[in-house]
Amino acid sequence: MGKNHLGEFEEIVMLTVAILHGEAYGVAIIEEMETRLKRSVSIGSLQVVLKRLEDKGFLKSELGEATSVRGGKRKRFFTVTNVGKDMLRTSKEQRMQLWNAVPDVALEFVGL
Fold this sequence. Notes:
This protein is an alpha+beta fold. It contains four helices and two strands, in the order αααββα. It has a single domain, classed as Orthogonal Bundle (Arc Repressor Mutant, subunit A). Strand 1 (59-66) and strand 2 form a beta hairpin.
């Protein structure tokens, strides 16, 4: 996808980062996505998307404090940037326009 578009997984990752507001780091993001969506997510695929979203300017990250629990390793926390928030709003509006254009009859269940 280009810089002005979001893929499905990118959008899900950004929304999850927003849900975790201030507490969004790799493992927490995966746990939230798996809990809410009942969808398995690998750390590798998440890291690739987090980097791509940061490169696009939709997310920013900073390192937290080192903790003894993690053997001195610091967590990288992600937040949605203003540009990212605008992209999420645009994506939501586009989806709603499409949903609103679907005739009710098109989604009715037809029994046999």
